């Protein structure tokens, strides 16, 4: 499964009013410790992956309800996801590309991967 569940923190799992990393700004050491622990968890889950860990995999969404990750976050997880799902990495990469959405109105925001749609497509690819 591409992350927004296991590897990627979601500090506010279904309650948009719950505290998130934004509330830790005043406690920078606590935030840094949390980010370091998340990086280590990702490294432990895929020890052979030497790519830099994308920031959106180790920081919480402001709302905790964001269904998207960056293309870099999807690429970081690609080999592990292919291995766990018994899929060819090229199949996973193709699905990531197909579920990467462009900027809103062509200019706002960044490219993003819809995790729900991607995971549904990967489920169907089995």
The counted number of beta strands is 3
Helicity level: 40-55%
Percent of residues in β-strands: 5-15%
Q: Which regions have little confidence, pLDDT < 50, spanning 5+ residues?
A: none
Briefly note the structural class of the backbone: mainly alpha
Q: What's the helix-strand series?
A: HEHHEEH
Question: What global shape is seen?
Answer: globular
Count of domains: 1
What distance separates the N and C termini?
A: 12 Å
Average predicted confidence as pLDDT: 84
Query: Biggest sheet, in brief?
Result: 3 strands, antiparallel
Rg (C-alpha, Å): 15 Å
Please list the strands of the largest sheet in the order they lie side by side: 1-3-2
Number of helices: 4
